[in-house]
């Protein structure tokens, strides 16, 4: 008999984990072309890489893709054209004008039995499954909000922002050893993240990441180690790096 590999800690029957993939951005910083999530990486749309990265985790049984508002049908077709694991359910919903609204649209589409949710940028197509599983594991251990993060290479300055190109006065230099750059998937107890959206978003405060909204509720957020291959494809040079990572994986067959 063939034994299927199992996650280290099986979910209890009452726990179900879903991943929401916000993919509705235009990709302005990447330059002119199709919406970023639909651009090709090694011959396959970035979004498909991101969906596969979530589906590779045996903990994830549902993936909700938040498509560009005018591109839901195209995204549905792309998902049908590419091989994805049978055990993973896929839903497609239209996104909003901001990332936060897109995440909200994904949360609203979750079935009632989903208790934990991962929010993962389509723009981080190469996140390794071990990073996904580390986030899921921490949620299952009881953390309400879990974020993969990396130490910084560059020193960071706080400035008084000026007009583009003008010299900007430095206000402070935070101690680099205490700073982390955060990645996705960020994992949450579903009820906690929904509460954050209900209260923080309504107050119009917002946040630049999902965990930031939960922090504003006063709920503790923990970091787990991220991975250098979970970088976000934002600018053209990031595409060069992503292609190189894919080529290395193919050459070493280590993935
Ligand atoms: N996103 C989204 N809905 C929006 C804006 C962004 O679902 N209205 C998603 C993007 O598709 C991406 C993730 O949020 O997967 C992270 O956003 P970012 O890297 O900023 O992507 P874009 O907004 O597409 O890029 P840019 O800011 O350069 O336009
Ligand atoms: Mg953006």
The first-level CATH class is given as Alpha Beta
| Structural class label | alpha/beta
**Could you report the average pLDDT, rounded to the nearest whole number?**
93
- Biggest beta-sheet profile: 8 strands, mixed
Q: State the end-to-end CA separation.
A: 25 Å
Low-confidence stretches: none
The CATH topology is given as: Spore Coat Polysaccharide Biosynthesis Protein SpsA, Chain A
Q: Spell the H/E element sequence.
A: EEEHEHEHEHEEEEEHHEH
CATH superfamily: Spore Coat Polysaccharide Biosynthesis Protein SpsA, Chain A
Silhouette: globular
How big a fraction of the residues is strand?
15-25%
Provide the list of bound ligands, each named once.
cytidine-5'-triphosphate, magnesium ion
Strand tally is 12
Rg for CA atoms: 18 Å
Helix tally equals: 7
Overall domain count? 1
Helix content: 25-40%
- CATH architecture call: Alpha-Beta Complex
Can you tell me about this structure?
There is one protein chain. With 255 residues, the protein is α/β, with parallel strands linked by helices. It has helices spanning 46-55, 72-81, 99-108, 129-140, 190-201, 210-216, 236-252; strands at 17-22, 40-41, 44-45, 60-67, 89-94, 116-119, 145-151, 158-159, 170-172, 180-182, 186-189, 222-225. The protein is globular and about 55 Å long. The two termini are 25 Å apart. The model has no long low-confidence stretch (mean pLDDT 93).
Secondary structure layout plus pairing:
Layout: E1 17-22, E2 40-41, E3 44-45, H1 46-55, E4 60-67, H2 72-81, E5 89-94, H3 99-108, E6 116-119, H4 129-140, E7 145-151, E8 158-159, E9 170-172, E10 180-182, E11 186-189, H5 190-201, H6 210-216, E12 222-225, H7 236-252
Parallel strand pairs: 1-4, 1-6, 4-5, 7-12
Antiparallel strand pairs: 2-3, 6-11, 7-10, 7-11, 8-9
The protein binds cytidine-5'-triphosphate and magnesium ion.
Cytidine-5'-triphosphate binds at residues 22-29, 36-37, 66, 95-99, 102, 121-123, 232, 234.
């Amino acid at each position: 008999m063939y034994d299927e590999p199992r996650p280290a800690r099986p979910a209890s029957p009452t726990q179900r984990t879903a991943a929401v993939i916000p993919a509705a951005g235009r990709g302005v910083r990447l330059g002119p072309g199709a919406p970023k999530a639909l651009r090709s990486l090694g011959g396959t749309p970035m979004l498909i890489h991101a969906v596969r990265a979530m589906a590779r985790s045996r903990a994830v049984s549902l993936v909700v893709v938040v498509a560009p508002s005018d591109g839901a049908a195209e995204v549905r077709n792309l998902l049908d054209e590419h091989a994805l694991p049978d055990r993973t359910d896929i839903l497609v919903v239209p996104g909003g004008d901001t990332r936060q609204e897109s995440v909200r649209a994904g949360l609203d589409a979750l079935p009632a039995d989903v208790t934990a949710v991962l929010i993962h940028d389509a723009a981080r197509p190469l996140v390794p499954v071990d990073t996904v599983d580390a986030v899921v594991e921490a949620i299952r251990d009881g953390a309400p909000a879990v974020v993969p993060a990396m130490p910084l290479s560059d020193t960071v300055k706080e400035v008084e922002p000026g007009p583009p190109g003008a010299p900007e006065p430095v206000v402070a230099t935070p101690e680099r050893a205490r700073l982390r750059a955060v990645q996705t998937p960020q994992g949450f107890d579903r009820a906690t993240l929904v509460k954050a959206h209900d209260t923080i978003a309504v107050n119009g405060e917002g946040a630049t990441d999902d965990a930031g909204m939960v922090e504003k509720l006063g709920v503790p957020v923990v970091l787990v180690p991220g991975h250098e291959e979970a970088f976000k494809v934002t600018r053209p040079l990031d595409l060069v790096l992503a292609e190189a990572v894919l080529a290395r994986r193919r050459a070493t067959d280590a993935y």
